[in-house]
């Protein structure tokens, strides 16, 4: 237990030193523009960030604190769930396993839909256990609510319903529940709770569902084998779980699959229950990795029951190795956060955004009555929106799709005739020079475009980030 408290204390102490991530800013932006749902995800993470900001105020620390609190609740819920399956000794080992992982640190530091998803996923499995194995009818209702809230966090939660039905289909003892009205009441409630997401999609031509499915379905249907995608996904999982835990996953997957295929023998009911919420998500997504880029967080929900299963297999020696590797990784993480030893050639970083906002404020003083916009999906626009009092726009200004910025009902024609400041991140940052060219798309919306001196962000007297800046005159919206 001391290791669990130690890892959580470490994460909490690091919170004040963590800068704003673009994802933090974007999902905070969700909460500041309340809606039944949003273009790229349901809104649960935005609602939770809004709640915490209303209570504790707006600051980067409050955003990080929100993630830390919700993830701590997930760990506690995991402990409760694991206690139904493991002896006291194995329970402690499982708790150390999950607390030592990198994915728990990521969820504790970075706002994403996975933060509430993991909590409500765990609560869903707890309620389903109570309903099925303890025959407590009220938990069918609570499971439906929890599954609905999971879906309202992220669409991959649909695998909860799939896991439930898969367990009932393959379980000789509990198959009769397939015709139980309580099972179907649970599923109906889970759908009813998701009504806001469906209604928002209905009102917006099912834009979110199409965004999350159409391009991915098209890519998968091409079925082009790409070994780099597989090895990239493998590397991500080794990082998130750390090698020891990942290896234990592989061992028990092989064991149970071999027993089922060779001996036609399924595990006992409680183990089958855990596998039902692990195999479809973990193995299912892993099977796609040779043909599609599976994001590192898609498999996270499977870790909950997967780590409980790992608790049945992990040895004392393996647990010790897991903790040692974890400590090394977390010390390296703390050094990177505190001293920024390795430059990150990406906008997915926690450094530079506040300094960029300060420099942008100075620019607006030099060029009054201008509006600010960017063109990098959401990252710069969301970060500046967090820090600046004036509204910052995204690439919908120049007629490009801009995720949920497109659904704010902004009348862009009111900006006609105004001048603008365009901020463009130089992700690779090879030199401090101007860009020397103007994006042709910009030229179709402004009368004249002048490149200004770039904004250079420094830390410890070292240049670490660069943003190109353009002064754009006389905006004309074409719609």
Could you please describe the fold and organization of this structure?
- The protein has 479 residues and is α/β, with parallel strands linked by helices.
- The chain folds into two domains: 2-339, no CATH class; 353-475, no CATH class.
- The chain is 59% helix and 9% strand.
- It has 21 helices and five strands.
- It has helices spanning 2-14, 22-32, 44-56, 60-82, 88-99, 102-109, 114-133, 138-151, 158-170, 181-193, 195-203, 207-222, 227-241, 243-262, 269-276, 279-288, 300-313, 316-339, 353-366, 379-387, 440-443; strands spanning 370-374, 392-393, 419-425, 446-459, 462-475.
- It has a five-stranded mixed sheet, with helices on one face.
- Helix 20 (379-387) links the parallel strand 1 and strand 2 (392-393).
- Helix 13 packs across helix 14 (243-262).
- The longest helix has 24 residues, at 316-339.
- The radius of gyration is 24 Å and the shape is globular.
- The relative contact order is 0.11.
- The mean pLDDT is 95.
Q: Topology of this structure?
A:
Elements: H1 2-14, H2 22-32, H3 44-56, H4 60-82, H5 88-99, H6 102-109, H7 114-133, H8 138-151, H9 158-170, H10 181-193, H11 195-203, H12 207-222, H13 227-241, H14 243-262, H15 269-276, H16 279-288, H17 300-313, H18 316-339, H19 353-366, E1 370-374, H20 379-387, E2 392-393, E3 419-425, H21 440-443, E4 446-459, E5 462-475
Parallel strand pairs: 1-2, 1-3
Antiparallel strand pairs: 3-5, 4-5
Helix pairs in contact: 2-3, 2-20, 3-4, 4-5, 4-6, 4-7, 5-17, 7-8, 8-10, 9-15, 13-14, 14-17, 16-17, 19-20
């Amino acid at each position: 237990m001391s290791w669990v408290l130690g890892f959580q204390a470490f994460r909490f102490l690091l919170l004040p030193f963590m800068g704003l991530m673009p994802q933090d800013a974007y999902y905070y932006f969700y909460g500041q523009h309340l809606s039944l749902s949003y273009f790229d995800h349901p809104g649960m993470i935005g609602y939770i960030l809004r709640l915490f900001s209303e209570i504790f105020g707006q600051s980067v620390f409050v955003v990080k604190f929100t993630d830390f609190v919700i993830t701590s609740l997930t760990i506690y819920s995991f402990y409760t769930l694991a206690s139904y399956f493991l002896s006291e000794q194995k329970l402690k080992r499982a708790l150390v396993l999950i607390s030592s992982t990198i994915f728990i640190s990521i969820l504790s530091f970075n706002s994403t839909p996975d933060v509430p998803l993991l909590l409500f996923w765990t609560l869903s499995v707890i309620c389903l256990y109570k309903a099925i194995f303890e025959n407590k009818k009220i938990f069918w209702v609570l499971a439906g609510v929890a599954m609905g809230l999971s879906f309202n966090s992220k669409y991959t939660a649909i695998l909860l319903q799939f896991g439930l039905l898969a367990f009932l289909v393959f379980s000789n003892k509990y198959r009769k529940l397939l015709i139980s009205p309580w099972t179907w009441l649970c599923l109906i409630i889970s759908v009813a709770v998701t009504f806001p997401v469906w209604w928002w999609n209905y009102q917006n031509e099912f834009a979110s569902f199409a965004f999350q499915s159409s391009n991915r379905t098209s890519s998968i249907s091409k079925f082009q084998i790409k070994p780099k995608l597989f090895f990239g996904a493998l590397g991500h999982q080794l990082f998130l779980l750390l090698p020891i835990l990942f290896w234990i996953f592989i061992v028990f997957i092989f064991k149970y699959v071999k027993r089922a295929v060779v001996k036609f023998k399924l595990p006992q009911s409680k183990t089958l229950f855990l596998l039902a919420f692990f195999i479809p998500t973990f193995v299912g997504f892993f099977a796609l990795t040779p043909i599609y880029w599976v994001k590192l967080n898609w498999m996270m929900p499977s870790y909950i029951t997967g780590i409980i299963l790992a608790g049945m297999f992990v040895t004392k020696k393996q647990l010790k190795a897991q903790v040692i590797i974890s400590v090394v990784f977390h010390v390296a993480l703390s050094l990177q956060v505190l001293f920024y030893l390795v430059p990150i050639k990406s906008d997915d970083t926690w450094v530079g955004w506040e300094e960029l906002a300060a420099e942008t404020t100075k620019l607006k003083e030099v060029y009054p009555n201008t509006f600010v916009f960017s063109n990098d999906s959401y990252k710069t626009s969301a970060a500046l929106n967090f820090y600046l009092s004036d509204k910052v726009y995204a690439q919908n200004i120049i007629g490009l799709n801009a995720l949920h910025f497109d659904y704010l009902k902004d009348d862009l024609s009111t900006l006609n005739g105004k001048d603008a400041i365009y901020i463009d991140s130089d992700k690779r940052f090879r030199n401090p020079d101007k860009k020397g060219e103007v994006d042709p798309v910009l030229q179709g919306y402004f009368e004249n475009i002048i490149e200004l001196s770039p904004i250079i962000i420094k830390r410890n007297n070292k240049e670490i980030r660069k943003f190109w800046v353009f002064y754009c005159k006389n905006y004309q919206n074409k719609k």
